[in-house]
Structures are given as C-alpha cells and as structure tokens.
User: Fold these one by one.
Assistant:
Number 1:
Amino acid sequence: MSYEPGYAGLGAELGLRDLIPSPRHAAAIWRRNARVFSKLWKGALLPTFLDPFFYLLALGFGLGTYIAHGINGIPYKEFVAPGLIASAAMWSSAFETTYNVYFRMNELRLYDNVLSTPIEPADLVAGDLLWSASRATVYGTVVLIVVSAVGLVSSWWAILIPPFVFVGALCISVIGYSFTSLIPKIDLYSYFFTLGITPMFLFSGIFFPFNQLPGWVEVVAWFTPLYHLVEITRGMATGPDALQILMHTAWLAVVTALLFPIPVRAIRARLVP
Amino acid sequence: MTAVEDTGPVVLARELGKSYGERVAVGGIDFQVPAGVCFGFLGPNGAGKTTTMKMIYGLATVGEGELRVLGMDARTERRQIKARIGVVPQETNLDGDLTVRENLIQQANYFGISPDDAAPRADELLEFALIRDRADERIHALSGGMKRRLLIARALVNEPELIVLDEPTTGLDPQARLAVWRALERLRRQGVTLLLTTHYMEEAARLCDSLLIMDEGRIVAEGDPPALIREHAGREALDLDLAEECDPDALLEALGELANGHELHDGALTLFAEDAEELLRSLDHDRFPTESAMVRRATLEDVFLRLTGRSLREGE
C-alpha cells in the first residue's frame, strides 16, 4: 500500500501544554472555514433540506402507514422525525471531518501554512472541530425547522435542540478527525462510511426502538454517539426527562474530551515531523 | 518593518541535526545569520536546505543540537518564534477557496491581527505585490509569478523581522523572477533579515551578502560570494573544449602550478587561475590541440560544481 505523504501514525505523547488549544487561535481557524462556507451555503443547504424530506416521505408517511399503532404510543412519523435531526448532523460532521479536512490538509496543503503561523496543532484541530459542529448544527436546525413545519414535533422543548446537536456533532467530528489524521490512504474512507457511519445511521434508534430486541443490541448502540444524540433530540421533541438528557450529554462531552488528543498527536506527527 | 534590536544573531545553529528514520537529512551543522543581511543556502536537491528551513520556521522539530531564532529556543518557543517570522514555502499553498485579498486577511487572522487592522494591511500588501487589480479574484486565476508575489506578500502580514524563503523563484520565467528579486531587494533595504535557499547561482550572487553551501546534510563552504569564488575557483576561468587526440592528464601535468584548480567533464576542461589569458598563452597548442578556448571570470557556478560535483541528485 502506498502511503499518503507524511503519514506518521499516532505520534508521540504530548504534554498538557501542547494539548490545550488557545481560543483565539482556534477561532481564526473557525473563521476561515466559516468564510468559505458563507460563499457556498445556498448550494450546500438545499440537499440537507431535501434529504430528511425524502426519508420522511418514504418511511414516515410510506412505511409508517403500516405501523398502525405507532411506536411507544407515538405515530411512526413523529418517532422518526427527531432522529433525522441527529442524523443530518452526523452526516455533516462525518463529511466535514473526512473529505473536507483531507482536502485542506493534503490537496490544498493549507495546514502547512497555518502551522507556520502562531497556530499550533491543538488550535488547528479545535478550530476545525468547532467549525464542523457549527456546520452540523446549521444542518440539524434546518431539519428541525422542516419537521416542525409539517407538525411532527409535539413539545416546545424542541427549541432547545440546536445546542445539544452541537455537542453531539462535536463528538462525531472528533471521531472523523481521528480517522482522517490516522489513515495512511484516502481509500480507507469507504470503510469509515460503510462500517461506521451507515450502520450507526441504521442502528442508533432512529428507525426502530430497542425494547423489542435482544438486550445486547442496545448495549452496542450505547457505544455510538448517534444513539445518545437521537435519545436527546427525541426526548426534546416529545417531552424531555432532564436526568436522561443530562446523562446522554455527559456521555458525548466526555468521549469528545477523551478522543481529542488523538488527532492533535497525529496531525502534529504528520505535519511537524 | 522593524529592525532587530537585540544584538545577537537572528539565527544561531550549533551541531544542528535532523534524521528521518535511517536517513540523515541534516548532519550536525553550525551557522549564524546576522541581522539585516540576505543570507543564502545553496546546495543540490537533498542537501538538507529545506529541512534546515523547516526547523527554523516550525514545520519540523529540532532533531539534535541547538537552534535559536531571534534569541528564542526553537524546541520550546515555537509559537513565539513563528509570531515574528514570515515564511515563503517552496510549495504554493495559498488558500484556493478564498480570493486574493481574503488570503491576506485570513493570514492576518492567523496572526491574531484584528479585522480593523487586517483590511488596510491587506491593501498595502496588494500594492507591494503589484496585484491590487486582481484582489477579488480566486487564486487559480493568477499566473505563477503573481502567486509567488502573493506568497511573499502573505509572509509580510505580521511585519516579520526574519523572512525565510525556500526556493522563491523556482519555476518562474525571467520576468517573474526579476519581479521577485526586486521585491526582495526592497525588503532588504528596509532592514528585514532574509534567509533564502536557491539553486540558482545568479540569484545567490545577486541577492545574498553571505552564502553557505550545503551538500549531503553538511556545510561544505561559507562566505560572501566574491570570497567564495576567490577561495574555491580563483579570479578567472579558462574553458577548453579538448580535441580528441588531446590527453587531459598530460596537459594538467604540463601546466603544473599555473592553474590553481580544474574541472574535467567529457572532454570539456575548465581551468582556474588568477590570470587565464596568461594560462592560455603558456599552453603548448601543438601538443594539446583544442576545438575552442574561452577566457571568462570565475563564477559561483564554478564554486558550486567544484564543491558538490556534477552528478545528478535525487529529489529532496
């Protein structure tokens, strides 16, 4: 297998000083990405608007018609709708931190320039992750507006969904970024999507609940970030249980913090050998 | 531009080394770059020039030895060093998703310059790079020469005390190269220290006050261009195109001490001497027939080829 230029694996362990990002420098990275997005958002948002619409049509209104009593007392389309907010955020985060980051790093060689300014690897990774989560929140919010507009949200708590989408997207982004910084070759993205993102989309409780399935299914799902984000969005859309929301949010935040050193170390090993 | 106030050298390297796995890129070198000069690194591909530059501007960690930039330790004070230097990389890595002006404004953001200050600074630099009329175009619409000038302008957003340029004119046509040289000469007049790598001898001779020739990770010669030529080639050179029946070894023996050095390559013999005319007169033309003979001044090119050889090098 021929490796991408500079492929260096995980890299050396770093001290706290090299792992804590500087907010000012991370913000400069965020701003660069936002600047580019501000030119493209019209074209980029339309598919996001259409995508959940088709899922709702096919599953909520199509398949849902045959699920007469709904799920756990909720009509099927109302069951699916909040999950689609979470999945839009997941797809956005997954693409941003794989193909987009890869392109900036290896094709545009932007990071070589960025890292020869006062910006250090931790700032770069933090700025990119915060941007990815922001972009995902925009996408998730668009879907929230769509499903609310067609009357599939029953609780006013749903207004508070976007900040939670941000937290969930941050977690999915750090996973994608870790993958990008560690893979020796772009071809491996197909594994990330077929073995990671797509199964997560199908088996994280968006389309069916776990209570009729063997217990291990939910245990496996518990280890995926999307499961927690779906639990939060659905809870918010149908009437939340504060403790549950708090626990799911904590899971996402803790996993994000635990994984953050991985891309920082790998990016540093790769670009500052 | 601000002149350097501290009295010490802008760059100080002691026993500086760097290896990538088994391959030694830089093998323990010592050098000093004084403030306010244009300092050149010459060397064939793979000599270790780029690696040395990357250690200075923070895209490679210091392997062995000591490296101080603007008085700071390159191992531990990377962020502070980077804040005060400008970098023109070998590879054009402008932001293709942004316009020309946005590239400069975004670069100012990376340095923590406020948006209010960044916009006028960008306009100033567009003027400097002679691309003000292309300010709102995307990068891919620019010519190679314009991209280079923009790269140099981008390296100036933070008003650096030291600018590191890795092969600033490679791949440019003569007009574009001249424009880059003029820009660099303007910067030097303003008192900015320039550190550049090149493998164009005329570029080194024109721009650099002081030169250092590297080969295979080591320094093979150092000095200002005229001194290097005097020391390693002499004042003048005599290019002889030897006839087939001419024996170069016998010729060299016959000349003895008259020539203070030579280069032989496929029947082309270059002799170095203080007075090449005299050398030519003293040559026994019946015994050593030549197709052509030319007297000229010795150049850096002679020095370079004498010190680093004529064989082709692998890419760095």
Number 2:
Amino acid sequence: MAKTTDAFALNEWLVIGRLEDVTHDKPRITRLLGQDIRAERTADGTIGVWETDPSGHKGRALPVQERYGHVFVTLGETPRDLLEMPEFEEEGRRLVTIGYVRVKTSPLRVVENFLDLGHFPYVHTNYLGAEPQTEVANYKAEIREDVDEVWATDCSFFQQKAAKSATDGQQSEYEYRVTSPFITVLYKTCPIKPGAWDLVGLFVQPLDEDLCEAHSFVLPFDEENTDVELRHFQQTIFLQDRPILENQLPALLPLTPGMEMPARADATSMTYRRWLKKKNITFGVQKDAADNSNRAA
Amino acid sequence: MEQTSWIVAGLSAGLFEGSVMPVKTPGKDLAVWRQRSGQANAVEDRCPHRGMRFSMGFVRGDQLACRYHGWEFDGTGVCKNIPAHPNLQPPKTICAKTFACQEVNGFILVHVGDDSAAMPAEYSELESENLVPVRSVYLDASIETVRHWLMQTAFPPFAVGQDGPDTLVTYIYDNPGENLVRISAQTGAAKEELIFALQSLDDDRTGVHVQVSGMGSEEEMPAVQQHVSRWLADLRFRLESNDQNELNNLKISA
Amino acid sequence: MIKLYDYPASGNCYKIRLFLNILGVAYETVPVDFYPGMEHRKADFKAINPLGQLPVLDDDGFVIRDAQAILAYLATKYDAAGTWFDRDDPVTLGKTMMWLAFADQITATSSAARLHDVLGFDLDVDAARKGAHAAFRILDDHLIEQEFAGECWLAGDRASIADIACFPYVALAPDGGVDLGNYHGIRRWLGRIKRMPDFVEMPGIFLEFDEPMAAE
C-alpha cells in the first residue's frame, strides 16, 4: 500500500515505537499510514526519522517528538497537538512501557475495543470481569468540543483482578479519553491509593489500513510489583483481546449505519464513531457498505 | 466460481451437541452449530453486534453465544440475551442471518443460494441403511480435480485384507448428484460402497465428507473406519503431489 | 517451593503452569522479561539455562530446562496415580514419548508463526505456517483414528503429558495465521482438554463456557 491520502490521519502525531526500540546498533524500520519509514539514533543521541523509498533510501526527514516513553512522528504539515498527560509529572508514579503487539485489523477497531466494557466477563474472565456480574450500568459519553476529544465518565464495573496490585475484587471506576483516532487513555480506580487514578494508555501505530502495532503503557501508583510484573499483566490483557480483534468482520471499521447494532453499553464507541465521521477519516474505515465481503481466509 | 444453491457442510457425526464449527464457502463464511437438544443450525459467521465470528463462540443450551460480549441467539437467529443489559428484552431488529440447514442420511446440508431451490433429491434418495460415517478430509485441489480422480480411483476393499491382494475387484463409479460420488467395489459376494459428498471451499480447496456401507461386521467398524481413513490420507497425498507416478497408483488398471 | 521461570504469553511455560495446576502442586513464578526485554538472551539468565530458553523449573535446588523434560519430571515425582506418564506398559510409554517428541515439531512451526505475527519476530513465516499445517494434518489424522478406536487422547484412552505438551501451540495456532477450521479431530481434542478438571487458560486460549458461571 502507498502512503494514505487521508488528510486527517496524516496530520496526527503517531507513535512509531518506544525510546528503547531505537538504538545505535539497531534502527527501527517500519511503516506508518502506508509510508515506509526509518528511525535512527543520531550522533548526539536524539532520534531522527525519515520517509524511505522501496529500496530503503532515506527521503524527507520527519518532525519527531520523544514523549511518554515513546517516539512520535507526523507525516503532515500542520499536526494537531499531541495529548497532554500532566500525571506524568506527578510524584510517586511509575511509567512502564509494554512493548508493541501486532494485530491484523484496522487501528480504529483496536481503539474501539479499548473503550469497551461489555466484553470484560467474556474476554478477560476473572481479571476484569466475570459472570454473573455482566451488567454495564449507564454512563456518560460525549464529544468535548473545547478540546476536541471524546470522553466517557461514570463508567463502573466489578472486577476480580483489576490490576497487578489488586488482591481482592473491587468495583472499578473508569474514565476514558480519546484524543486522536489512534490514541486513547483510560483512568481507573487505583487499588492502593484511594481517590487516585491509575493510567493505562494505548498508542496505536497504523502501518496499513488493516495492520497495526499497538504500543501501550501503564502509569500507576504501585510500590509492590516490579516493572516486569506490571508489563506481563498488561500483555496478558492485550493478548486476550487480540484473537477477538483479528476475527471481527469486516476488518475495516464500518461507519455506515445498519451494519453493526450497538447496545446502550456501547455509548463510548458510538461517540467515537460519530467523532470519526465528523473528521471525515477514511483510513481504516470500511469504504463501501456493499463491500461486506469477509476477510481472506 | 459460482455458488451452488445447497452445499454439504459436513457429517452429522462430526458435529457434537453443544459445538460450533466454521464452514467456508466461495461466497461466504458460515458457522454451523448444534443445540444441546440436537438440532443443527447454520448462521452467517458474523455477529450483528460488532462483527465477531460466531465460529469462535460457544453453545449454551439451545443458544449460540458470541465470544466477544456473550450475546445469545436462538436457532432462528433472534437475539435472546444481551449480558450487558440482563433485564432488557433485546430489540427484534437484532438478529443473525441464518440459512436453512437440514441433516439427511448423515450429511449436514445448508442452503446458501439466493434462490428458493429445494434440497437436491440425491441426498434423501441415498439408501440409508447401514451408512457408516467415516470422516471429512480436505484437499488442496479444485472440486473438478477431486471429482475426476474419485471417479476412477481404485479403493482397496476392506474385505481384500482378509482374502488376499490377488482378489478380483469389480468397480462401479456413479455420480448420483453433481457433488456426490459413489464407488462400489465388488469382491465375490461382498459389495462395499463409499459415498463422497464434495464441498468446494474455494477454487483450490475441496472438502470431502465420506460415509461407507457394506464393509465389515458391526464389531469391525473401528477397523473399517481406520482402513478408509488411511486410504483417504493416501489419496490426499497422491492427489496433491501432482506427481504422475503417485497419481497412477490411484487409477484402476485399464 | 517450586520456582518456575515464566513468561505468561509463552506456550511452553504454560504447559508447566497447566500441568502444575492439574496436579495441584503449588509453585511461584519468577517473571522473565522475554519481550520486549529479551532477558532470556542475557548473561544472568544464561547462567540458569545456557540455551537461553523458557521455561526453567527449580524444584528445591534441582534445576531442569525443556518443557517436555519438566513435564516428565513432574509427572514422575508428583503424580501418585501414575496415569499422566505411564512407564509400566512399554507400548503406552512408546506412544507417549512419540507424541511428546512431536511437540517440538509443533513448537518449531506454530510457535514461530505466532512470534512473527504477534511480536514482530523476524523469521520465515510462510515456511512456519506451511510446516504447522503439515504437522496438524498428521495430528488430526491420528486423533480421528484414535476416536474410531474409542480413545480420545494422543497416547491411548487416558490423557498423558503428551497431550499437555502438544496442546498450547495447537490451540494458539490462529495467533500465527494458521486456521484450525478443517481439523475436526484436533478441534474436538482441544475441547476435551479445556473441559478437564483444573484446566487453566492462557491469553489467546479461551475457556469453554458450557454453563454460565455462578457468583462465588
């Protein structure tokens, strides 16, 4: 696939890897929105990223931000700002990056799954939910025009093992925030510090319309677990989602009404889809309502 | 390749109660499942909620549940339960697309065409006494290639194992339906029959669902099934090899 | 207390976690940062296992590597009934060892395809998938024949460590783009294993949900 022509997607800051994924010995050679790119450590230690041609030769240098433990670039001229997360400056928090997982589906499907509560008892059984406590109580989902973000608040779910630090079941409170078609953060009740939120973030790197690499992080208050234990917990959760993501048909996200039937529990995803439609995004979106063909076997 | 109106999805004996299996056809993907009470159903392999494959779902009693959010659907495709809203009666607009599914003489048939054609008569016309299901086998070959070789292949009769390799075998090849092949192998007084129901998965892959009759006594059934299963594996290997030497061993001698 | 050097997403480590749970033997895990840390390739871990592979089991100072070897050791030491690794009958022993060895074939193909598709490991994924299908045909043919004989397990009419050894990377094959849809014998066998008492899952393997779970 060639570089996308989707103007909205091109003007986003997009993740291409963790800081540690780009070393002096090993560049990161990957793809973004159909465009081949190469990330290298330059002599002064900073990270440079270039578009490359099919034989690997470097072309245009791309703007780069090193933030939140990851490397972000943009292919556009006038990118929207990358999200702000002031919690990163807070005392006592730890950042653990998870590493990427590759998924054969639209990056938009990956974000939408992250926002979903109803699947906890079935996909994350005995971690984030279990029968018979399957009910998703009413919550609030909205587009906040002032910041141009999607927010869901007052979300709540009973969880057997909400986080690595949890020793008992708890009623978890959640807030969800979407700042880009490809970036979302959730804020959930911290099991050990009442009143505080733990952050779990998802940066989806869109390689092609139906192939992405999901980079994520946790930013909790936690004094007991090692980085590796926190990392393993998150990987477990994501690898439980992956077979679902790869078996949704069609792979590209349908935005035409009628193809998929939401329930009230899907309020956040419906708001996310409404927001995507307003942005006229085409990358990762099902093109033609009639083209419902199943993905290739 | 054109989608035939009715397809053979598998053997009844291969679909246990409370299980789901994926069935691929050239035009669409299906999930075929069996209720605990025994009935087999066919549904488009896509939950109407968020497009998740039903073939990865699970059966609860007489309902098929989607793996993603646990939504449950009955045999007619109507959504009966949405776990996220346990007190809500699901709106009637939420339903899965179903296909007519019938079990006849040990085969599971599904009506996938847009027409209103009745099930082809050849399946119910099969003499049903003593049809023993063996297995389904899948070959990396077109349905035309598979049919071509089945119509001339020398199946070694189960009885010959006892009588010896020089026994004279008389073969009769029959095509009782477009996708049904019958081989009868006569040795002396014993007449062994194999029925092959062919299913096109796509241009290059074919499923073959096999039943037999007139082979061995009731106690010998496991040995009969093993004999036929091994021969099918051999047939699959030779047919896929595209090697003339291997293929020659499939044919009856002139 | 048994220590298991472990990575939750490793099918080979899961063989041990599953079997220990079935045996009801307590253990603690030592998490190893397999990905993205590549800790298993570094000097500290190589001192524990020079092959740089997981899992490794430490039973009160006895250190043993290789998932199949660990299964055989645990069955011999902790399975009082002696059904998981029957060494009394030579035929059963032969069959168990034959299918235990087959697990390496499954790992080399299906696990490799999965590492490529899930974690971006650089390897020949087409060869891995082709090899997995070739192995699965053999496995499927065998399981179907076992069913004819009224036996539901790889080495006979009882589950053995061969079933535990072959299970994970077969069940996880779709993660690596290897579809199990046409292997009916394998699918039925996977369902049997998942319904065993004390079965536990790992990410990528779904539980059987025959009955709704009641509140604790």
